[in-house]
Specification:
Oligomer: single chain
Order of helices and strands: HEEHEEHEEHH
Shape: globular
Radius of gyration: 15 Å
Distance between the termini: 15 Å
Strand content: 25-35%
Structural class: alpha+beta
Number of helices: 5
Length: 148
């Protein structure tokens, strides 16, 4: 999205995210987190209706740790590509029960990654409620910026 793109429609109600929350919480339990013990799961719907999921995978070389969003985008691309329609990310200590994992915001790097693959109507469920991509990453750098 660029500053010249039309504004996406208003975000939908959190009830639209119930199944995605359940999927994100379920995949978080598969996260590999021997160092932080902070499990993260992400779930999204592609514009074509495909369910996408990812979990964080830590590494002793901390810089090569993979965020849950990275796994989710790999799932999108491996499944044929497309754009994201809805997204949610949950996280919490490994001691938490599945339903206790709350919604967390993607880090800045992951917001940039999501932005590259965002559909025009992408809505992200945040701890403060549904938000558009432009709201969680205003003035995002994108492919059109490379042409300048």
């Amino acid at each position: 999205m660029t500053a010249n793109d039309p504004a996406p429609p208003a975000p939908t109600a959190p009830a639209d995210f119930e199944s995605l929350l359940a999927e994100a919480r379920a995949i978080a339990e598969r996260a590999f987190t021997p160092y932080s013990r902070f499990r993260v799961g992400a779930a999204a719907l592609a514009e074509d209706g495909r369910l996408l999921r990812g979990c964080n995978v830590e590494n002793a070389g901390y810089g090569v740790t993979l965020c849950a969003e990275c796994g989710l985008i790999s799932d999108l691309i491996a499944g044929g590509g497309g754009k994201l329609h809805r997204f949610v990310c949950v996280g919490g200590d490994e001691s938490l029960a599945r339903d206790e994992r709350g919604v967390v915001m993607p880090c800045g790097r992951c917001r940039q990654l999501l932005s590259e693959h965002a559909g025009a109507d992408l809505v992200i469920l945040t701890p403060e409620g549904p938000r558009t991509m432009a709201e969680v990453l205003p003035q995002a750098f994108g492919p059109s910026d490379l042409a300048r």
